[in-house]
Structure prediction request, 210 residues.
Amino acid sequence: MGVCFIFGAAKGAMGPPSPVPVSKMSENEYLRLFTLMRKLDFILSILIVLACGFVKLSIIFLLRRIFLVYRPSRFGYITAAMVVLITAWTVTFFFAEIFSCGVHINGYWSTQEKDFKHCSNIDAAVAAFVISSVITDLMTLILPIPMVWKLNLSTVKKIQVTGVFLLGLFAVAASVGRMAVVLKAASLNRKFYPDPNSRYLGLPTAVDYG
Prediction:
């Protein structure tokens, strides 16, 4: 993802506020930068799904490594179910991002007419992704807490260990902030660009990649 940002900034398609207004450059140059920006946005939207999915899975496997004993247990079943859930979640949104414009994949970075015709469900898919991401973050966060309180430790140490795991609240807070910004951006996008004949600047939600 970092390579995409660096490449986009080097080419002038990312970093400045959208592509520079068309009044300050030729029409062809504007369209070139706009197309590059949308292509990078498309790649990033796919990579963020994979990144989120793999991070969640790595945390769950780490928790299984720490707490799972070599016999059937409720925690083992719950974490196994979470692995299946997160894997299905990742695969679902991976393909949802790729086919966000149906089989007309290039509609994502093509003309606005194609965008409005084939990519009308992008906002709904993005909203579903960020909301479900917060929910799965919360589910992952609370997984280890019951196991900590079953350990043979003093109450003070249990509180300390719980506090360490609850540092994950910062990640959840970031997810909530990302969700708020993404949903607001989608709302502004519908408000300011309802007319397919108007110039579409787009609102790439770069916060979603952080």
User: Anything to note?
Assistant: The chain has a mean pLDDT of 76. Helices lie at 2-10, 27-67, 74-98, 112-118, 122-142, 144-148, 155-165, 169-192. The longest strand covers residues 100-103. The beta strands are 100-103.
